[in-house]
Design goal:
Blueprint lengths: L2 E11 L4 E10 L3 E5 L6 H8 L7 E6 L2 E2 L4 H5 L2 E4 L11 H8 L8 H10 L13 H14 L4 E5 L7 H14 L6 E5 L3 H7 L2 E6 L2 E7 H7 L1 E5 L6 H4 L4 E5 L2 E6 L2 H8 L4 E3 L3 H10 L9
Parallel strand pairs: 3-8, 3-9, 6-7, 7-8
Antiparallel strand pairs: 1-2, 1-4, 4-5, 9-10, 11-13, 11-14, 12-13
Helix pairs in contact: 4-5
Length: 292
C-alpha cells in the first residue's frame, strides 16, 4: 500500500529542544496515534508537516509530494482539527462556512450539509455558543467537506466528556472505511487510541521511541509485579524500567519468556496499557528502545 505521509530524518533545532532525525510513515486507510509527554515534540512535528515552521533538515512527503514545494496542492487535501479552534466567535456556523469554503476548489456544499445534519450542528448557532465538542465536530465537518484525504488532529478529544469522546472516535473509525482516508491523531489520552488506532508512534525528548502496529506493541511488552527481594544487581538488568515501593516492584519488559525462566512462578505477569508503556519509558530507569 502507498504511504499517505512519510517523514525521513526530520530535524528541527531550538535553543533548549531539538527533533533528532525522526522517521515514520502512515499508509492510506489507517489511523495512527501520535503519543508522548508534554514537550516531547508532537506539536513541533505537526507544525513541520503543515509547513508552519521550517525544518532544518530531513524530508516530509504528503501524498508522495514534498510538503514545501507542493504546499498548496497538499493543503487542499488535508483536514486539520486543532485542540483550540480559531473561528470568528461572533459568526454562525453557516456564516463561518461561507468564509472558509472559497479557499478549497473541491468544496462540496452537499457534503457539508450532510455532516452538519449527522453531527446535529444547528447552522444558525453562533460559534461562541457551541460546546467544545460541537466545535470539534464543526472542524471535522469542514475538513470532510473539501474531500480531505489526510485528517490531522491535535488533541481532538482533550476536555470532552466521555459521551462526546466516544462519538468522535466512532466518527473517525467510520472515516477510514473509505480506504483513501487516513487519520494522524496526536493525543495524551492513550485509552482512546487503544480503541481505534492501527499504529502508534511514540515520541519522547525529540526522538522516536517506536512506530509500530498497536497490537504488536501491546503484545510485545508486559508488566511484571513481584516482591522487592527478587531484585538484585543482575535481575534489575532484565527489565526496561522498574518502579519500586514499600510493597514490592512493578517493571516493564519486552521479553516475557526470559522473565518466566528467571523468576518461575514468583512474579505476576500482566498486559500493559499504552499509558503504562509511555509512563515507564518517560519516568522509569529506561533502556534504549530504538531497535523497535
Amino acid at each position: 500500500m502507498s504511504n499517505i505521509l512519510e517523514i525521513r530524518n526530520l530535524r528541527k533545532q531550538y535553543d533548549k529542544f531539538s527533533l533528532k532525525d525522526i522517521s515514520f510513515s502512515l499508509e492510506r486507510g489507517y489511523i495512527m496515534g501520535f503519543i508522548g509527554p508534554n514537550g516531547a515534540g508532537k506539536s513541533t512535528t505537526i507544525k513541520l508537516i503543515m509547513n508552519l515552521i521550517k525544518r532544518d533538515s530531513g524530508e516530509i512527503k504528503v501524498f508522495g509530494l514534498d510538503n514545501i514545494k507542493n504546499e498548496k496542492e497538499i493543503k487542499e487535501k488535508i483536514g486539520f482539527v486543532y485542540d483550540e479552534n480559531y473561528f470568528y466567535e461572533h459568526l454562525s456556523i453557516l456564516e463561518m462556512k461561507r468564509i472558509i469554503a472559497p479557499f478549497y476548489k473541491h468544496w462540496d456544499d452537499g457534503t457539508f450539509k450532510k455532516y452538519i445534519k449527522d453531527f446535529n450542528l444547528p447552522p444558525s448557532r453562533k460559534i461562541k455558543d457551541l460546546s467544545k465538542g460541537m466545535k470539534m465536530k464543526f472542524s471535522l465537518a469542514l475538513a470532510l467537506s473539501h474531500r480531505a484525504e489526510l485528517i490531522i488532529m491535535d488533541e481532538p478529544t482533550s476536555g470532552l466528556d466521555p459521551v462526546f469522546r466516544i462519538e468522535m472516535l466512532e466518527i473517525l473509525q467510520s472515516l477510514i472505511q473509505d480506504e483513501r482516508v487516513s487519520v494522524f491523531f496526536s493525543t495524551h489520552i492513550t485509552t482512546d487510541l487503544e480503541k481505534i488506532a492501527d499504529y502508534i508512534t511514540f515520541i519522547n525528548d525529540g526522538s522516536i521511541v517506536f512506530s509500530r502496529p498497536k497490537d504488536d506493541i501491546l503484545e510485545s511488552f508486559a508488566l511484571i509485579k513481584g516482591g522487592k527481594e527478587l531484585l538484585d544487581k543482575d535481575t534489575r538488568k532484565e527489565f526496561l524500567a522498574i518502579k519500586e515501593n514499600s510493597f514490592g516492584f512493578e517493571a516493564l519488559t519486552d521479553n516475557t519468556d526470559r522473565i518466566k525462566k528467571i523468576f518461575k512462578n514468583e512474579v505476576i505477569i500482566e498486559r500493559p496499557t499504552l499509558e503504562d508503556i509511555m509512563v515507564y519509558t518517560v519516568r522509569g530507569e529506561i533502556k534504549c528502545l530504538d531497535s523497535y
